[in-house]
From TrEMBL:
UniProt keywords, alphabetically: Cell shape, Coiled coil
PANTHER family cross-referenced by the UniProt entry: CELL SHAPE-DETERMINING PROTEIN MREC (PTHR34138:SF1)
Biological role stated in the UniProt entry: Involved in formation and maintenance of cell shape.
Regions annotated as coiled coil: 85-112
Organism whose genome encodes this protein: Paenibacillus chitinolyticus
Family per record: Belongs to the MreC family.
GO BP of this protein: regulation of cell shape
GO cellular component: plasma membrane
Domain Rod shape-determining protein MreC beta-barrel core: 125-287
Name the record gives this protein: Cell shape-determining protein MreC
Amino acid sequence: MKFMGNKRLMVLLVGLICFFILMGLTLSGRTKFYWPEKFLKDSIAWTQSVFYRPAAGVAGFFEDVGKLKTIYDENQILKKRLTDYALATQQLNALEDQNKRYKEALEFTERQKQVSNYKYRIADVIAASPDPYNGTITVNLGEKDGIKPNMAVINVDGLLGRVLTVTEFTSNVQLLTDLSDTNNKAPAISATVKGKEYKSAEGQGSYGIIESYDKEKGLLVMNKVDQNDKLAVGDTVITSDIGKVFPSGIPVGTVVSREPGDFGITQKALIKPFADFRHIREVFIIEIPEVK
């Protein structure tokens, strides 16, 4: 009986298969169908759609996930390359800037050899005051390099200040921006005018003393200018060796104004410094050869 039941089931399945094949062949070449044929065709199509749409959706999902992973990997690679390029560009710009400064420093020292017998010791700034217009900077030369207090400090533009204190390996430099009437640590700077140099023996030429820095105006104040002095707006102010602190001939700045002094006996001049005190990288410490 069991065998007969299985045999009947097999016959039924074979019959259904043949029926569907026959229907497919019959319907494939016809354009007009009877309603049972339409019903059967729609039923088959609906059944196929029930299985096809989820399967297609799942397949599309995994395909999109694969594409998303590929795009993410590509973006990571591009991001790393962009970071490497930006870092390399930054390093290149820094090296080019440093090379330019060193070239200017070399040209400066070569020019100075022609006008004086001073020795210029180049030093790197290793620390600075947070306030760009106040305080000191620290450089990487000290006692072991022959640096002493009160040595003049300059850059390729002009006078920056003087060595204030010295340790074995470093020195603190007091900038001109730290000059003030109440700062007893800041020595006055004897100054004259290029082309109108003061000659003490003859008592002629332009002369004054730079004693303070006007932080609001960003200008140096040169006092004790004689009323008959020929100093004029636009003149270049340089150091004079009368004060015995700074060597002579160091460019300081340009005269921007001249006006009566505090007591009306002498006059004062406001000077725009040549040096930029905001971005100091390298400096020169001037060593004057000892007279034997």
